[in-house]
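On clarity, I found the account of how folds are encoded harder to follow than it need be. Since the whole study asks how a given chain folds, the encoding of that fold should be made plain. The format is easy to grasp once an entry is in front of the reader. For illustration, here is how one protein appears when written out as sequence plus structure tokens.
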Amino acid sequence: MHLPDLHARLDLSGQGATALTLSANLVYGTERLNLRGNPLGSVPEGLRELVGLKDLDLSSTGLSTLPDWLWSHTDLETLNLAENALTSIGDGIGQLRHLRMLDLGHNALTSLPDALGDLARLSDYLYLSHNQLGRFPEFLGQLGRLKYLNVTHNGLGALPAAIGGLASLRELRLYDNQLVTLPDAIGALANLRELHLSNNALEVLPAAIEQLSSLRILDLRNNRVRQLPDRLDRLTDLAYLDLRNNRFSVLPPTLAELPGLQKLDLRWNKLDVVPGWVDDLERRGCAVLL
């Protein structure tokens, strides 16, 4: 496939291309290149000569390895390598010091390079979902500007205390893992608005959850939780609480004191009795599902 002349943004996604030939104009002009969905099998050699590339989408291109020269594109701000067959990422990724967005989801990664923790400007999102990591890398706690982190479907058994270093995090998705507990350091995520923990093996929640004063969504469905922290009412911004399919027999009355609660889902628990305060919640406009 021969690519056309100079375009600052070039979308060649879904063209069915198995090879690429780059024109001289493209080499000196394109800042954003989308090759998603082309069965390339390898990163086209011609990309090596691109200058000033800021946005590169190589998702769903049949990649199993990455060339070391890819990390020489140090102007990159967005890199999408999702939905490939990658089993490793080279240390050279640490050279991408301008990277704000990185998608490594839906690959076969069993580990990540420590150098990923050097990406101090990574701020918008980091997708690691649907890999085989097995453990949460401690160096991710160095990403103090990161706002969105997705590590779902990875077989994680625990979270390190280093997670508390993600001070800017607003949304954390950890569902479909094997988490049994959460570290107290989770309470350091003062800016967290959404915490998604469904489909794990959680039995208890640390009292530190009460410190998440910005939290709006807490999803705990399909776990093994029997009781909640005593002062969950400190989560004054909490609007959505999903407790479906856990092991609650009783619920703390502090749930009735959550001032911003709009929806409380209690289905598929074996409550001894429906608390009287459920009526109070419904009267003030909170949807309660039993």
About this structure: The two ends are 58 Å apart (CA to CA). The chain has two helices and 13 strands.
